[in-house]
Amino acid sequence: MQRHLTTIIDIARQLGISKSTVSRALTDHPNVNAKTRQRVLELAEQLDYQRNQLAISLLTNQTRTIGILVPEFISYFFPRVIISAQQVLTKAGYNVVICQSGESYEMEVSNAHTLLANRVDGLLVSHTKETRNFDHLRTFQRKSIPVVFFNRVCEDMNVPNVTVDDYRGAFVAVEHLIQSGRRRIAHLAGPDSLPNTRNRLNGYRDALLHYGLPIEPELIISYDLTLEKANIYINHLLNLPQPPDALFTINDPTAIEVLKVCRSRGLHVPNELAIVGFSNDPISELVEPGLTTVVQPVDDLGREAARLLLNAMEGSATEMPERVVLPTQLIVRGSS
Amino acid sequence: MQRHLTTIIDIARQLGISKSTVSRALTDHPNVNAKTRQRVLELAEQLDYQRNQLAISLLTNQTRTIGILVPEFISYFFPRVIISAQQVLTKAGYNVVICQSGESYEMEVSNAHTLLANRVDGLLVSHTKETRNFDHLRTFQRKSIPVVFFNRVCEDMNVPNVTVDDYRGAFVAVEHLIQSGRRRIAHLAGPDSLPNTRNRLNGYRDALLHYGLPIEPELIISYDLTLEKANIYINHLLNLPQPPDALFTINDPTAIEVLKVCRSRGLHVPNELAIVGFSNDPISELVEPGLTTVVQPVDDLGREAARLLLNAMEGSATEMPERVVLPTQLIVRGSS
DNA sequence: ATTTTTTTTGGGAATGTTCCCAAAAAAATA
DNA sequence: TATTTTTTTGGGAACATTCCCAAAAAAAAT
After folding, report:
1. pLDDT tens sequence across B12-63
2. In terms of DSSP H, where are the helices of B104-165?
3. CATH number of the domain where residue A197 is located
């Protein structure tokens, strides 16, 4: 594997000039003779020279690369956020490296180390559902590499973050169910470790309280977001002596799973069971009946996260870290 | 931004030994006193030292990073392929950098340059629908950086590639429609620039020929994969004086779009129009009726692509480049 | 023609690491 | 104790680039 890529020195040698001059010609530095620049540019083109970003990064101590660390990107949510963040960052002249941890804490730590070793200039992160120890991310902070959380945030770390208004989204969703006459509203919640799970749960609780409905512990189940478990719990809820007349789920895939179970049990949606999801996956408008759900502004989320990171990297990081909460919105479809 | 990260030299100085010794201690080199190693390791931990991968890569001329270049990753397909490729590559000790070009040729070229400047050791690529000139990828070849195509391949370039059996998949899909009594089978095809579009089109044609059915040019429409266009063409087909009784589409999202149009026009599926998609998106089993489709072995695709790349990077690249074609399979659901 | 100014060029340090070679220290042998 | 062998250490080159400073060349001014 003795491939040799053209360097600035090769060009200098062939032209009988110094590497400094070549460097200047290649970097649009003013102090270079027009004709010399021309010759350099031509030879560079001819040898298809490609500047070695590694050497430059080593020297300047910045890579102009930012890392994005997400738990997964199969679902619709993260890819969309990443794309919109990437647009902003690319425009600002940064490269983007994406790592996904497959919801595994171990993988997340390993990815964090890789990004650190590769000297990213900043980090955008949404942690796994398993993550409880944030040392691997604090390391970035300690080395003063800006970190911004989005969607899944660690409130203990004193860094900027962007979330959607999970509490309000959940409140409005449950309020809608109550106002359409439901009285036994179950909630299939996510893992307790995630702040947005907790916020949605609080929204659910407060909506019930606000309308004078009892909070029944047997109607609240938190689970690990795997569809197998979802299935078990959905059936468990429907088999209760007093089954719920509505089900509010932590996300749309779960709600779709509920829809499938109802279909297989011959339960009519929404007459016998109303369903409300969360996130407005594209699937939610394709199923029959359409799924009532809470919209998360995915594009804004990515854009804002990128903006906060750029601020932190380029601006003064002394102020109180900015925390953005984006509004959510209920979309009512056939399932409720 | 004068952050200084701990280096091997800081450790050496604090311990009053040379950087060579520190380096040895840190890299598990045998020629180092056990006690010295211990001291180095402890201090490294304490200062949370992180080796600078840039410096190492510069020195060794390999980054142990491989680039994955895809047109998009919103759809289900690419994320899945990437994840399975990533698993293989991670296990082999490589980092993975993912770039998405948003189906834009310009962005693809720019991404290719970035990856080259960052000195990736290998490239996994599925090009955009706009890509007709492959110079930006040939550059890798010229610099003897292994390239492997997957799914969307450039047959002119003499590199390994992995595809699914698009021809056979399409043939079997259309055969199934014919055998269930359809006679006017339309095909909504992808852009001509993509080989898999062409292969699927050939499969469609040959199936018709094989069963003695005429090929009607008015029933074959290629389009650019945007859903807005899909909508227009679907309506166009259904408005024909002699509308089709079946529609075979280039992919599942398109087929779902057909389903939606049928729903809004009150057309019964499959009685009045049978629909067959391609790729077995998870959505396809959630819609009503379930979508008949052709399964692409996404995980195998990623795994094989990674394997071929590892071969090319580590093995002898002299032989004829390997080309893998993975089998497809028809899944019949309610839409046909 | 000489001096001053401007433009253009070259040399060398610096970035953080590994690896080779020589030197020093320690251990083993005579 | 002296010599040989083994273990451990240090010094410096190399990787590709940028940037500073000085030197050379060219142009302008006297």
Report:
1. 999 999 999 999 999 999 999 999 999 999 999 999 899 999 999 999 998 9
2. 105-117, 135-142
3. 3.40.50.2300
